[in-house]
Amino acid sequence: MDTRDLTTIAGTTTAVPDPDRLVHLQFRRFAGCPVCNLHLRSIVRRHDEIQSSGIKEVVVFHSPAGELREHAGDLPFDVVADPDKHLYREFGVESAPRALLDPRVWPTILKAVAMALPAVLRKEKPPPERAVAGSGFPATS
């Protein structure tokens, strides 16, 4: 694969693949997705350990950069906006309603919403966008 320089929501560039480190490239849903937030916060808790192991986190969302700055601007790793899903197609990541039909995911969805809702109600975090860029279905590969 040729190296790609991706622009992050912070305005910097990040190389994928990185010539010096292993890249953990994640494709996520939309800005403010409760399930994505739950998963990403678990990675934030272990970020120092992951980074010291020589791994670079790069997270791609199919939301515009402005929305991502509001929802994910505090993440300690590279976040890339891909509202037109060019990277999703390039890497063969698709969206499918069947991802929500598996009952094994329902407890995680409920937990994520329950954890996100109090901060939204207290207006500490913005709610997810009502009009999500692209599909609202989870990414599958």
Summed up:
This protein is α/β, with parallel strands linked by helices and 141 residues long.
What labels describe this entry?
141 residues, three-stranded parallel beta sheet, disordered C terminus
Describe the structure.
- The protein is of the alpha/beta class and 141 residues long.
- It has one domain: 3-Layer(aba) Sandwich (Glutaredoxin), CATH 3.40.30.
- Helices cover 36% and strands 21% of the residues.
- It is built from six helices and seven strands; from the N terminus they run E-E-E-H-H-E-H-E-H-E-H-H-E.
- The chain has helices at 34-45, 47-52, 65-72, 86-90, 98-101, 106-121, and strands spanning 4-7, 13-16, 22-27, 55-61, 78-81, 94-95, 139-140.
- The chain has a three-stranded parallel β-sheet with strand order 3-4-5. A two-stranded antiparallel ribbon has the order 1-2.
- A hairpin with a 5-residue loop joins strand 1 (4-7) and strand 2.
- Helix 1 (34-45) packs across helix 6.
- The longest helix is centred in the last third of the chain and has 16 residues, at 106-121.
- The chain is globular, with a radius of gyration of 15 Å.
- The chain starts with a strand and ends with a strand.
